[in-house]
TrEMBL record:
NCBIfam families: flhB
Subcellular location: Cell membrane
Keywords, sorted A to Z: Bacterial flagellum biogenesis, Bacterial flagellum protein export, Cell membrane, Cell projection, Cilium, Flagellum, Membrane, Protein transport, Transmembrane, Transmembrane helix, Transport
Function: Required for formation of the rod structure in the basal body of the flagellar apparatus. Together with FliI and FliH, may constitute the export apparatus of flagellin.
Membrane topology reported for the UniProt record: Multi-pass membrane protein
UniProt GO cellular component terms: plasma membrane
Family: Belongs to the type III secretion exporter family.
Top-level taxon in the UniProt lineage: Bacteria
Organism for this UniProt entry: Alteribacillus iranensis
Entry keyword annotation includes Transferase: no
Key word Cell membrane present: yes
Name of the featured protein: Flagellar biosynthetic protein FlhB
Length: 358
């Protein structure tokens, strides 16, 4: 009894790698190894690298916009007509600044996801399920090992990012202290430069941290989709099909093959019989065939059907027990007559041709 329970336990233990079908099924459900840290790091890196290139244009545009506000809009009369116009112009000018950054964010975010998981459309993953709002499962996820790992990762990132930002600010403290004594444009440029350095440095740091996180996500995903030996057997059995269905399919295939074979009997030149146990139909066309071919063969009941069709369509039947047994054993349907049986078959065909020409 104990041995049986142990075997059952080992059969259910998740020790096997996921099969291709299991991987495909989990992918359809949206379960793929993906690190959000990779997306975050690449988006930050892409945005701040773009900002380094776009900073001059952005700075000039903002300065011109502020000059326009303080030189033009300040003289406008505040009324129901001027306020909507004011906000529309400011919104349009702000969009010119923000839209390129949002576009870069979108492109980099989509590209990061494609790099990790490829193109994937999973309507099943976004379908509404009551179990998704089950508070018990929510609590279980909060206090799971996975949640603890995510908490430790977040704390580590906060500490490292904090140390990095503090270090950059500390080494730039001299320029920040005298920032109030510099012109507005120069001060703005210094702050923009420092912000860009901090952003790019944090992005590189998060990208470095994302590499082990992605490896962990792959490891955890492989662990989650592992299968037991019984699962593999069940899947294989399901893919192979039910034995009853397989037998019915095989029977149908045999019936179709039998039907095709019987359609060839009326075209045969001769049927060689045992006379009761075997029947082999032969056809020969000297213009298209190098040797006579077996178009149908059978034993017992099938042989009886072949002989019945041959008699119905007035096909010559020749009784030759040794030749019938040899042809049945050495050939398959569609095969040419073996070389060692050429002479015997030629004699039979010669007899048939003499008989039909009389």
């Amino acid at each position: 009894m104990k041995l049986s329970l142990d075997l059952q336990y080992f059969a259910q233990e998740k020790t096997e790698k996921a099969t291709p079908k299991k991987r495909q099924d989990t992918r359809k459900k949206g379960q793929v190894p993906k690190s959000t840290d990779v997306n975050t790091a690449l988006i930050l890196l892409g945005v701040f690298l773009f900002m380094f290139l776009y900073a001059g244009v952005l700075g000039d545009f903002i300065v011109n916009m502020m000059q326009h506000v303080f030189l033009e809009y300040i003289h406008w009369e505040v009324s129901e007509q001027t306020i909507p116009s004011l906000f529309n112009e400011i919104a349009a000018e702000s969009a010119i600044v923000i839209l390129p950054i949002m576009l870069i964010t979108l492109v980099v975010g989509v590209s990061a996801s494609l790099i990790q998981v490829g193109f994937m459309f999973t309507p099943e993953a976004i379908a509404f399920k009551l179990e998704k709002i089950n508070p018990l499962k929510g609590i279980k996820r909060i206090f799971s090992i996975r949640a603890l790992v995510e908490l430790l990762k977040s704390l580590l990132k906060i500490i490292l990012v904090g140390v990095l930002v503090f270090s950059i600010i500390w080494f730039s403290l001299d320029s920040l202290v005298f920032l109030s004594q510099r012109p507005v444009a120069a001060g703005f440029g210094e702050l923009a430069r420092l912000t860009g350095i901090i952003g790019a440095s944090v992005a590189f740091l998060l990208l470095l941290l994302a590499v082990p996180d992605y490896m962990y996500q792959r490891f955890d995903h492989e662990k989650q989709i592992r299968m037991s030996k019984q699962d593999v057997k069940d899947e294989h059995k399901k893919m192979e099909g039910d034995p009853l269905i397989k037998s019915k399919r095989r029977k149908k295939q045999m019936d179709m093959a039998m039907q095709r074979m019987m359609q060839e009997v009326p075209e045969a030149d001769v049927v060689i019989t045992n006379p009761t146990h075997f029947a082999i139909a032969l056809k020969y066309d000297e213009d298209t065939m190098a040797a006579p071919k077996v178009t149908a063969k059978g034993a017992d009941y099938v042989a009886l059907r072949i002989k019945s069709l041959a008699q119905k369509h007035e096909i010559v039947m020749v009784e030759n027990k040794p030749l019938a047994r040899s042809l049945y054993a050495q050939t398959e349907i569609g095969d040419e007559v073996p070389e060692n049986l050429f002479k015997a078959v030629a004699e039979v065909l010669a007899y048939v041709y003499r008989l039909t020409n009389e």
